[in-house]
Design a protein that fits this description.
binds zinc ion, alpha+beta
């Protein structure tokens, strides 16, 4: 579990499970491979993701963290800010 302070000042924390901060991202190919299993545990599912994304509940910025060598990097590789629509 970690804390991340968004650029808007919101303090985000993923220590509560489930939470609305953290998203797991899979490619279509990975998801297809995962769905071949009859059942899969949450732990097994979490280690198959390539990216971990945090969404700020205040400003909706997305912080993208990459998984390398089985470990989620602590520094975001991309940060996306919502555009006006
Ligand atoms: Zn924010």
């Amino acid at each position: 579990m970690s804390h991340l302070v968004c650029r808007c000042g919101e303090d985000m924390w993923n220590g509560q499970t489930p939470n609305d901060i953290e998203y797991w991202v899979y490619s279509d190919r990975q998801l297809d491979s995962i769905l071949e299993n009859d059942s899969i545990s949450t732990l097994e599912l979490s280690v198959k993701m390539n990216y971990n994304v945090w969404k700020c509940p205040k400003c909706s910025r997305l912080y993208v963290f990459e998984r390398k060598n089985g470990v989620i990097e602590s520094k975001a590789v991309k940060i996306y800010r919502l555009e006006e629509i």
